[in-house]
Amino acid sequence: METTGEEVEASLVEARQTFKSGHTRSVVWRKKQLEALIQLIHDNEDKIFEALYDDLGKHQAEAYRDEVGVVLKAANYALSNLQKWMAPKRSSIPLLFFPAKGELQPEPLGVVLIFSSWNFPISLTLDPLIGAISAGNTVAVKPSEQAPACSSFLAKYIPLYMDCKAIKVMQGGPQVSENLLQHKWDKIFFTGSPRVGQIVMSAAAKHLTPVTLELGGKCPTILDSLSNPSDMKVAVKRIVGGKWGPCSGQACIGVDYLLVEEKMAPTVIELLKKTIKRFYGQVPIESKSLARIVNKHHFERLCNLLRDPRVANTIIHGGSVDEDNLFMEPTILLDPPVDAEIMSEEIFGPLLPIITLKKIEESVEFIKSRPKPLTIYAFTKDESLKRRIVSETSSGSVVFNDVMIQFLCDTLPFGGVDQSGFGRYHGKYSFDSFSHEKAIMQGSFFPEIEPRYPPWNHFKMKFIRLAYALDYFGLLLHLLGLKR
Amino acid sequence: MVEELRGSFASGKTRSYEWRASQLKGIIKLADEHEQEIVQALRSDLSKPEMEAYVQEIGMLKNSCTVTLKELKHWMTPEKVKTSLITYPSSAEIVSEPLGVVLVISAWNYPFLLSLDPVIGAIAAGNAVVLKPSEISPATSSLLAKLVGEYLDSSAIRVVEGAVAETSALLEQKWDKICYTGNGKVARIVMAAAAKHLTPLLLELGGKCPVVVDSDTNLQVTSRRIIAGKWGCNNGQACISPDYILTTKDFAPKLVDSLKQELETCYGKNQLESKDLSRIVNSNHYTRLIKLLDDEKVAGKIVHGGEKKETELRIAPTILLDVPRDSLIMSEEIFGPLLPIITVDKVEDSFEIINSGTKPLAAYLFTNNKKLKKQFVMSISAGGVVVNDTTLHLAVHTLPFGGVGESGMGAYHGKFSFDAFCHKKAVVYRGFFGDAAIRYPPYTRGKLRLLKAIMGGGIFGIIRALFGWS
Q1: CB contact under 8 A, A97 and B424
Q2: Mean pLDDT, chain B, whole residue set
Q3: B contact residues 114-173, partner A, Cβ 8 Å cutoff
Q4: In whole angstroms, how far apart are CA A321 and each of A17, A292, A302, A324?
């Protein structure tokens, strides 16, 4: 069901009016919407699981862990902290301006637009929505048409639970998105690919609309040699969990490729194969724990990556696909050529290339010479390697000895840099992302500082020089007509 | 040239505290040792009075450097953050890292300050920088090119002079951040160019900064501060200058009289020729401003000033009373020494008028009335709001300076400058201990129950789930 151009207009007009009325600014309204969202999820959890299964073949546990649970956690966190976030923050003002007071007052931006992606269609729509509501805005969300069951679910249930004069769900494909981008918004929040990110930002430029872009990239995973075999097992478990666990590799912060030392490769491959078998059984297509590829287009794209004969030769595990079920089994490749598409484009699928290096320290250069990813994962106990990774590489975030958990931490900003995006959210950062931090200075009529006003003379000039140097004592002497 | 700077950045030299501090000290030295030349350049470009040149450009810039130098080590230290039960055991921090090679495009009205102040932020954050000063203030532009070349590390900090062609060429390159100070029209061009490379932006634009004057106010101080913010700031050619006034019909005559009186005290009787006032920057802007006065809708509304001298590009401080809201002078940012006064019945009516326009960079209110202050602060959306003064917030480095909506995006000054040119990288440290089987497939009902309990965060929920009681 596509939202028509007239519907978009009408929704925007209503959202603007609602915002203007001031209705969405009260803490009561914001809390009510957050509570309504929590209720919506509690009441309809089964339907959400169904929709995610329809769109992506996600198991309930994955759906809860990566989508439902994330949203509930974010909503509850916002509810408990909302009043604190909304309160003005005192700013210290230099003594020179005494008795002026300064503070920062967050205020909503107005009417905001959220584009979400198909791989986490529930959480990537509702998580930013929580931020937008907490900040007091009216919102239009446009879930991805590539996850149609989830999009319909949101379009049906959000108006039933939340304030439909303030929160609008738009449905449809690229035409609807194009239509939406013609209008003026006070902020646009986009999750998706860099290519579409560019289109969004170019459209936003016409109205000087600020944007947050949550993009992707090839998230490398460095696996150093770990002397303790049980640590190695845990590391591989986490890597497997971070590759095929979230939406079968179709995740912006999923493990894209692995970097290991040559001599470690056999051990690592052995462990990977074992772990995959333990998680997904002997016949992965029968496993209920693996998501599907979202649609034929992406399925073709992934098959194409393997069609390059130089790449196909390097498959050492898996490789089989089932077109009817849009299923690809966990596949490992050993040292595909680094100039092949599989190593230059974000994979976004269940293919794991392993790149071997002579020494693990080379991984830093390898990563540095490539576009900045959303995350870098590194499994190592070597403190100096950790330091090098943090200081010499650049990425949205870095996680040592685990995967994906930065996503769960409400105190950490979640966002990219360079080609992986700009802006950030989660926790208070979501609130800030949809707010304008207004600087307020409360001056007083007294005292009047004469040197501020013309006509200019030497006395006033000297005064200002001393003031800038924050030389209060000198100022006092100057005022009293005494010299140092 | 960008390649060269990228090379310098990649070498890591701009990342050390020592390098950053040395460059900042270089800027202070440059300003100290060439103060007279800078004042001269500003006089040549804008006829800016020496006092203004010092107070609003040189002094402010040096202060900005000093504050930055004092706090830099602290700002550069990673910020430790708390992690939650869900990710136990783990520790996390936020590391501020430079973005890379940034472009600063500055404006003509405060050509010295608006060029180097963002550069201070870029350097403090550890970036390499290219500065493109405005060609409309050519003396300052070439002085900057000379001094930056002499005092700062030219392998990482460069000045590119030129006009539209050079700016367009610069905008085709890929930058890690672009800071633009100027008007909305060019800002759209900058943002469209930035979009091609997904470059984040800091846009410092302008707008019609309103001043609401309540009858319950200290009239003399109010007038003086309006004058200081309007004509005392480059003769009204400043982004945070009071653009127009809103006051009640009853109070307006009193305000006009007070303004006239204080204007004479500040600038004497012959205000057109006063040396304490800047001139209009060039004939384009001069013509633009004269047109605003020639608009028939404001005929007869001039209550003070109106004198002009085209040969010297001078326009005297001019006040207009009761201008219609649909006049030319009320349709765009004035950026000049013309001050229209709009009268309303009740002072609260002014809020609607302000909110019906685009969001300005600053909004001002003069009153003793606490309730009115609160109302104003809550309901007027602007980059910054000042009560009982004008423009002063620019000098307070603990307040973020930036716009919203048409007046811009992002903010800077003080630590906000450092943050504007950094990437805040989240870094999480975990050990190998504490691995919950529930994270991994094969997924079971029991795992789902436990997962729900843990993500819900309650310790009792977790215990219950462990015992299978959920």
Answers
A1: no
A2: 93
A3: none
A4: 51, 11, 10, 9
Closest A-chain CA to B431: A401
Q: How far is B299 from chain A (nearest CA, A)?
A: 30
Cα-based distances in Å from B32 to A110, B28, B62, B298, B446: 45, 6, 8, 46, 71
Q: Is B309 helix (H, G, I), strand (E, B) or coil?
A: strand
Residue B143: band (very low, low, confident or very high) from pLDDT cuts 50, 70, 90? very high
CA distance A219 to A251: 10
Find the CB nearest A439 among B59, B218, B400: B400
Tokens representing B181 are 């100070």
Q: pLDDT-derived band of residue A185, with 50, 70 and 90 as boundaries?
A: very high
CB pairs under 8 A between A and B: 293
Query: Taking the model in full, what pTM does it have?
Result: 0.95
Which are the contacts of B398, defined by CB distance < 8 A and separation ≥ 6?
A: A91, A92, A93, A94, A102, B414
**For A374-400, how does the pLDDT look when each residue is reduced to its tens digit (9 = 90+)?**
999 999 999 999 999 999 999 999 999
Would you say A69 and A404 are in contact if contact means Cβ atoms under 8 Å apart? no
Q: Which residue has the tokens 């423009």?
A: B391
Average pLDDT over residues A16-40: 97
Find the CB nearest A454 among B81, B100, B266: B266
Q: Is the pLDDT of residue B461 over 70?
A: no
Q: What is the C-alpha to C-alpha distance for residues A233 and A78, in angstroms, rounded to an integer?
A: 37
Cβ atoms of B38 and B382 within 8 Å: the answer is no
For chain B positions 428-457, those within 8 Å of chain A (CB to CB) are: 428-432, 435, 438-444, 447-448, 451-452, 455-457
The residue annotated as part of the active site, out of A62, A67, A214, A261, is A214
Assign B163 to helix, strand or coil: coil
Whether the per-residue pLDDT at B131 is higher than 80: the answer is yes
Listed in sequence order, the DSSP H helices in B243-400 are: 252-267, 283-294, 349-355, 370-379
Give the integer Cα–Cα distance in Å for A233 and A227.
Answer: 11
Which residue in A76, A396, A454 is closest to B276 by CB distance? A454
Instruction: Determine the distance from the C-alpha atom of residue B35 to the mean position of all C-alpha atoms in its chain, rounded to a whole number.
Output: 24
- φ/ψ of residue B204, rounded to 5: -110, 100
User: Is it the case that residue A483 has pLDDT exceeding 70?
Assistant: no
pLDDT classification of B145: cutoffs 50, 70, 90: very high
Is B79 strand, coil or helix?
strand
- Measure CB to CB from residue A208 to each of B187, B276, B377 and give the nearest one: B187
Chain B residues closer than 8 Å to A61 by CB: 438, 441, 443-444, 447-448, 451
Pairwise CB contact (< 8 Å): A409 & B384: no
Mutate to test the interface with B, among A41, A393, A405 (most CBs of B within 10 A): A405
Burial of B287 per CB tally in 10 Å (0-12, 13-18, 19+): exposed
Q: Cβ(B337)–Cβ(B227) under 8 Å?
A: no
Nearest to B343 by CA among B362, B320, B327, B361: B320
Q: Band of the pLDDT at B444, cuts 50, 70, 90?
A: confident
- Chain A residues with CB under 8 Å of B432 CB are 226, 228, 230-231, 234-235, 401
Strand order through the sheet with B302-304: A89-91, A101-108, A435-442, B384-387, B362-366, B210-213, B244-248, B338-344, B318-321, B302-304
**Nearby residues of B158 by Cβ (< 8 Å), 6 or more positions away:** B1, B5, B129, B130, B131, B148
Largest CA distance in chain B: 90
Inter-residue contact B110 to B59 (CB < 8 Å): no
Are B320 and B344 contacting, i.e. CB atoms less than 8 angstroms apart?
Answer: no
Whether residue B470 has pLDDT greater than 50: no
Angstrom distance (rounded) from CA B203 to CA B109: 16
pLDDT at B165: 94
